[in-house]
Amino acid sequence: MTIQENISLKPFNTFGIDVAAKYFARFDTVDALQQILQNPAIKGYPLLILGGGSNILLTANFEGLVLKNEIEGIELIQEDAEHVFLKVGAGVNWHQFVLYCLAHDYAGIENLALIPGSVGASPMQNIGAYGVEIKDVFHSLEAVNRADLNTVVFYNEDCAFGYRESIFKNKCRDQFVITSVTFRLNKVPEFKTNYGAIQQALDDMGVPKINIQDIAKAVMQIRNSKLPNPKEIGNAGSFFKNPEIPLADFEFLQHAYPDIVGYPIAGNMVKVAAGWMIEKAGWKGYREDDAGCHSKQALVLVNHGHATGTSIFALSEKIIADVHQQFGIYLHREVNIY
Ligand code: FAD
Ligand code: NAP
């Protein structure tokens, strides 16, 4: 296996940050991955496992090994009257996998159309959109443990999935290389259209009888109209998570800000729209050199051209401090910082 040295990571992250990796290697099988990890030259170096690079902010040269996951393949491994179980290579592009499911009438991830990145990264933050999270269809995954190179299976209950969270994002960060994910998709769809603008988009499309293909089409339309395309302007999607606060605190804030946006969730809590607070605090469209806050979607930080990772990180610090001062709520970053 070739391990390259001093490789620019600019083409490998959607923020378009120009830093270098000390070592860089690609793998497309589990064997190849294990061989790379056995190489004495990289022993003890930090590891960055890379999919599509759409949820990372690189703030410095990476003084370790960047491992680019290119394991392909979609395999039907089990089927019953209601479900199919698909084992998917971690390097498969997420949206291509969604398209595969749509073509085969496998339901469950149509609301997650057009999310950038790889299948292998999808459990990392339990990707979600429009009222669906992958934990709803996740069966298990296989990962190689960096410490002993053994393959380990994690089932749904092992992954500590939460809102844009999992065990891989925190406790086990950079320890396990996810090599495949097995999903349990539904043969009989359960439509989820009550979220955001989906129903409106379906009405506008004049759909007489709803199906998963139409839902995906509606989601793609909304996303294409709202979200900045990383090919046109560097970004990693939502930079911050929507904070969850007790209902009583939310009601208190409502006195001062009657138009504050929040959604009730379990446990007498409310999920507050971070984008609304950032916009209210005046950051939407803000730009400092090439680091900025997007002009249409305040939750998204952008690279207007030659921003450094540190300048985008510094901007995020200012936003966090300002939102905290104004609303008493501390924003947490969703993007993984390296
Ligand atoms: P990367 O950015 O390459 O990696 C992200 C993290 O996962 C890193 O810490 C990395 O080390 C780790 N990782 C990657 N692959 C593996 C692996 N095989 N094994 C172990 N660890 C791994 N996210 C949502 O949840 N919902 C959305 O609707 C959404 N919309 C987005 C829209 C835009 C325009 C953009 C740019 C991003 C959006 N995102 C969204 C964020 C992002 O697409 C997802 O988090 C996606 O899952 C990241 O995949 P990736 O392959 O690019 O991961
Ligand atoms: P939106 O529809 O304008 O809604 C704004 C926020 O309010 C969203 O973040 C969403 O929270 C929440 N929300 C809206 N309707 C809700 C409902 N019925 N119940 C509970 N919460 C509701 O958001 P958007 O920016 O256009 O994004 C649409 C979807 O795509 C969202 O699910 C969003 O998370 C996802 N998305 C994610 C990223 C990313 O990088 N993570 C980037 C773009 C879009 P949630 O975020 O919790 O869903």
Indicate the topology.
Blueprint: E1 4-8, E2 20-27, H1 30-38, E3 47-50, E4 56-57, E5 62-69, E6 74-79, E7 83-89, H2 94-103, E8 128-129, E9 132-133, E10 138-145, E11 151-155, E12 176-186, H3 198-205, H4 212-226, E13 234-238, E14 244-246, H5 247-256, E15 262-265, E16 269-272, H6 274-280, E17 287-288, E18 291-293, E19 300-303, H7 309-327, E20 336-337
Parallel strand pairs: 2-5, 3-5, 4-20
Antiparallel strand pairs: 1-2, 6-7, 7-12, 8-9, 10-11, 10-12, 13-19, 14-16, 15-16, 17-18, 18-19
Helix pairs in contact: 3-4
How does this structure look, described?
This protein has 338 residues and is of the alpha+beta class. The chain has three domains: 4-69, Uridine Diphospho-n-acetylenolpyruvylglucosamine Reductase, domain 2 (2-Layer Sandwich), CATH 3.30.43.10; 74-186, Uridine Diphospho-n-acetylenolpyruvylglucosamine Reductase, domain 3 (2-Layer Sandwich), CATH 3.30.465.10; 234-337, UDP-N-acetylenolpyruvoylglucosamine reductase, C-terminal domain (Uridine Diphospho-n-acetylenolpyruvylglucosamine Reductase, domain 1, Alpha-Beta Complex), CATH 3.90.78.10. It has seven helices and 20 strands. The strands form six sheets. The protein has a five-stranded antiparallel β-sheet with strand order 6-7-12-10-11. Helix 3 (198-205) packs across helix 4. The longest helix is centred in the C-terminal third of the chain and has 19 residues, at 309-327. The mean pLDDT is 96. The site of NADP nicotinamide-adenine-dinucleotide phosphate (NAP) has 14 residues, from strand 13.
